[in-house]
Design a protein that fits this description.
Layout (H helix, E strand, L loop, with lengths): L2 H14 L10 H11 L20 H15 L2 H4 L5 E5 L2 E10 L5 E2 L2 E2 H14 L3 E13 L4 H18 L2 E10 L7 E11 L15 E4 L5 H9 L17 H10 L3 E6 L4 H13 L2 E5 L7 H10 L12 E5 L4 H9 L8 E7 L6 E4 L5 E3 L13
Parallel strand pairs: 5-6, 10-13
Antiparallel strand pairs: 1-2, 2-7, 3-4, 5-7, 8-11, 8-12, 9-11, 10-12, 13-14
């Protein structure tokens, strides 16, 4: 562990205290705090949907809160996590759904098929649930090559086997030529929670540590380069991968895990803003501690994009009791998918609702949520 990472871990322990309880506060208190954080009613100012509404940033959050949450409001939806957790008899279950419109359909390190399987598996895993079953809905464009569809389904089958899940139901629709960009996919999944933890963005506490499981921005950069719009060559490939095994190892070693999120649309910056807002805390990051591959950093600099906002598909953000920061780091690094994990920051109590970045030059800046997305159609 680097000196900077050790410093963050020590600060987290010092702020939090060794004797602080690791259990989460009652669920209703969490929901009440989240509701207070949203006391100003969201309103969509646009008359029509724009690409920004699907980018995972401010426009997306406003659309979700002003339209979908307003229409469908219920206790499970209120938390706005990537999955719903509910009871079925004596079992605690998780349920999620996602749609995939990535362009191009095939890219270095993966394709829309394994992306859909891994994305849904990971949304379940972020609640701590063991993924069990998936559905698969295909929207196909007239004229789409059957060979490409076969390639996609074969990729899905391999990804499902690797993740330990089965695709057990599905649907197929065909639309007119030019109306589906070849193939769109929707996957839904169910899983079972086999631990007592309650994980979520609203669980963070001052003194907690913030970790990432590996280098960020690989997937979004790969998609950008695969589109051929830039005269750049790189060996980088998508990090798409199932994360449940890594989650299970972490939860087995640390009972102080507060929140897990896979950093997809909007990247790490968006995830941490969601944590800051839901928990009414500040998140303070150290720019020097954030792992970014040189290829990703170089491409981001050319485009004027901050890697903190670039999507991953096989990385997770972890918020853990500060007293267990080093244990969590060792545990992640002991697993192949977490070998390059790092402690990147800590949770503070002030200024609430903001994410701050201590820069390499010794300054501090606010890391806000983007209005739109400089790299659309990445998942």
């Amino acid at each position: 562990m680097s000196t900077e990472q050790a410093g963050w871990a020590e600060a987290a322990v010092r702020d939090h205290g060794h004797d602080a309880p690791a259990h989460a506060e009652p669920e209703q208190q969490v929901l009440d705090r989240i509701d207070r954080a949203r006391r100003r009613k969201a309103r969509v100012k646009d008359e029509r949907i724009t690409m920004a509404h699907g980018a995972g940033g401010k426009a997306t959050h406003t659309l979700i809160e002003a339209v979908f949450l307003e229409a469908f409001r219920n206790p499970m939806l209120e938390a706005l996590e990537d999955q719903a957790v509910f009871s079925a008899g004596e079992e605690r279950m998780a349920f999620t759904t996602d749609s995939y419109v990535v362009s191009p359909l095939f890219f270095p390190g993966g394709d829309i098929g394994d992306l859909a399987v891994n994305g849904t598996v990971n949304d379940l895993a972020m609640s701590g649930a063991r993924p069990l079953y998936l559905s698969a809905g295909f929207i196909l464009e007239e004229g789409f090559p059957v060979a490409d569809l076969t390639r996609i389904t074969a990729s899905m089958a391999r990804a499902a086997q690797a993740a330990g899940v089965q695709i057990v139901t599905g649907d197929t629709k065909v639309v007119e030529r030019g109306k589906a960009d070849g193939c769109y996919l929707n996957t839904a999944g169910v899983g079972v929670l086999e631990h007592p933890f309650r994980l979520g963005a609203g669980q963070a506490r001052p003194g907690d540590a913030v970790l990432v499981s590996g280098p960020i921005g690989d997937h979004g950069t790969t998609i950008m380069l695969a589109r051929g719009e830039l005269d750049l060559e790189s060996d980088i490939s998508s990090d798409t991968a199932p994360l449940y095994d890594l989650v299970a190892v972490l939860l087995g070693a640390c009972d102080g895990v507060r929140c897990l999120r896979d950093a997809t649309r909007g990247g790490v910056a968006t995830i941490l803003n969601e944590v800051a807002r839901a928990s009414d805390v500040a998140v303070v990051m150290d720019e020097r501690a954030v792992p970014v591959r040189p290829e990703v950093r170089g491409a981001a600099e050319i485009l004027g994009i901050d890697p903190l906002y670039v999507a991953c598909e096989g990385r997770m953000v972890v918020v853990v009791d500060g007293a267990q920061a080093q244990t969590a780091l060792r545990t992640l690094r002991g697993h192949p998918q977490g070998a390059e994990a790092a402690i990147i920051g800590r949770i503070a109590d002030d200024p609430p609702g903001l994410v701050l970045l201590k820069t390499e030059f010794g300054g501090t800046r606010i890391v806000d949520v983007l209005i739109g997305d400089p790299l659309p159609r990445i998942c």
